[in-house]
Write a structure and sequence with these properties.
Elements: H1 2-11, H2 32-35, H3 42-47, E1 49-53, H4 70-76, H5 80-89, H6 110-119, E2 124-130, H7 157-166, E3 172-178, H8 185-192, H9 199-216, E4 220-224, H10 231-234, H11 236-245, E5 254-255, E6 287-292, H12 312-324, E7 327-333, H13 343-359, E8 373-374, E9 380-385, E10 388-393, E11 401-404, E12 409-417, E13 420-424, E14 427-429, E15 435-438, E16 451-458
Helix pairs in contact: 1-11, 4-5, 6-7, 6-13, 8-9
Length: about 450
């Protein structure tokens, strides 16, 4: 622990932020004014689409709404559904930790997973290294016998997936990490003190974060489990100052905003805000919506029903809305305890990839336009890239005439459909702005019931 302690002490030093000459690295101080001044590495905004993966011991019971919280619902909140489930199917002396023996991951093939993620059109992956149950999907040095090497799979799940993902060109690897653990005695002791002591932080949270960064070099850290205690308890700014100044990922790592009570939507890198965050207007800060294919859970549920899953058109429409408002879309799937990804989840991901293979030009590296959407003929969302505007239609016009009110045309304006980009479409200008476009008689087959018009040379 001496090396870790020295590292954390080093991060307590405050480095002044000053204007430096080109080529000289800026050093960030351990305060939010300095931390928040760091520019977001550009790869993240350009990527737009990510895959979230919730997998852990909670995947073994695989039961109940928000199944990744199974231990808490059963023993913490003592929710009736989970209590009845355990009483009916397990002996009285069964403990949650006993589930780890059945978390075997016997069919986990990281290359198969990475193939699915690449085929989805996603550009980054965020894997749950540790959820609130505290089980580590890597050999944590401070989590003896409650990690995936000491018990259960007896494999370094984080390391194997990181290697497989990085074989795919253009696919970035990130890690989710929960700051807190429901039933860890050290955390409960700190909590009882009103978070005046920090034994859990210095003996568990910070050593694990530093270990993850130094060992697996994630390009993104998705922090969670922060809401009970302030950022000063978590020593968040000290960790982030080290991350941005001296860590092996300092030049390209991206972080979210969950670093202490009151931080989200206020401090950090990009903003997650609440789960499934859906702003009504264009935010003034880079943001991300995390959304699960299973509307009732982030973790796998054995009793999930088809009607409870997002269908492909809904996923595409949600993704388009998010990107039009300047966000990134992080879509969650939840593997089974044996390491298999349900064919239902795989079908959704490959379907999304099929749509992006045709229409990704309107998504990747795009920017919000001056007007984000309109609903004159059919619902339309706009994105832009340089001098090109993309109009993403969520329905096909029934009379083959599409009226767009906000584009300002020029004599050089060209309109094409990304499904058939070599054939320009006929159009006429309208007053005082806008255009009427004659659509093809045959509706192109769309993987997600959404079509993209490319408008070149519009003001």
């Amino acid at each position: 622990m001496a090396g870790t302690t020295n590292l954390i002490m080093k991060t307590l030093l405050l480095f002044p932020v000053v204007a430096l000459s080109p080529g000289t690295a800026v050093r960030y101080s351990a305060n939010w004014t300095s931390i928040d001044s760091r520019p977001l590495p550009p790869w993240y905004d350009e990527a737009k689409i990510g895959i979230f993966i919730h997998w852990g011991v909670f995947s073994v019971p695989g039961f109940g709404q928000f199944s990744e919280w199974f231990w808490w619902w059963w023993k913490g909140a003592q929710r009736e559904a989970e209590v009845d489930f355990m009483n009916k199917h397990y002996p009285p002396n069964f403990e949650y930790t006993d589930f780890a023996n059945n978390f075997r991951a016997q069919f986990f093939n990281p290359d198969d997973w990475a193939d699915i993620f690449e085929s989805s059109g996603a550009k980054y992956v965020v894997f749950v290294s540790k959820h609130h149950e505290g089980f580590c999907n890597w050999p944590s040095e401070v989590s003896w016998n409650w990690n995936s090497v000491d018990i259960g799979p007896h494999r370094d799940l984080v390391g194997e997936l990181a290697e497989a993902v990085r074989k795919r060109e253009g696919l970035h690897f990130g890690l989710y990490h929960s700051l807190y653990e429901w039933f860890n005695p050290l955390y409960l002791k700190d909590k009882a003190s009103g978070f005046k002591t920090q034994d859990f932080v210095f003996q568990k949270t910070l050593p694990e974060l530093v270990h993850l960064v130094n060992t697996y070099k994630p390009e993104l850290i998705w922090s969670d489990g922060d809401w009970e205690a302030p950022d000063t308890y978590w020593n968040s700014t000290e960790f982030l100052a080290w991350l941005y100044n001296d860590s092996p990922v300092k030049d390209y790592v991206v972080v979210n905003d969950r670093w202490g009570k009151g931080c989200y939507c206020t401090h950090g890198g990009y903003y997650n805000c609440a789960d499934r965050f859906t702003p009504g207007t264009l935010p003034d800060h880079k943001w991300e919506k995390c959304q699960s294919v299973d509307n009732r859970s982030w973790g796998y549920r054995r009793n999930m029903k088809l009607i409870e899953l997002m269908d492909l058109p809904t996923i595409i429409q949600d993704m388009v809305y998010v990107v039009a408002l300047g966000g990134n879309y992080l879509l969650n799937i939840s593997p089974m305890e044996d390491g298999m990804i349900s064919p239902l989840f795989e079908e959704r991901l490959r379907g999304m990839g099929g749509w992006l293979a045709v229409n990704g030009e309107a998504i990747y590296a795009s920017k919000p336009w001056r007007v984000q959407g309109e609903n004159t003929t059919v619902p339309v969302w706009y994105t832009s890239k340089n001098n090109t505007v993309y109009a993403i239609m969520l329905e096909w016009p029934s009379k083959l005439m599409l009226n767009l009110e906000v584009p300002k045309t020029t004599k050089d304006t060209i309109v094409t459909l990304l499904d058939n980009p070599s054939v320009p479409l006929k159009w006429l200008p309208t007053e005082p702005a806008g255009m009427v476009i004659l659509m093809p008689e045959d509706t192109p087959v769309s993987h997600g019931q959404a079509w993209v018009l490319k408008l070149v040379e519009v003001a």
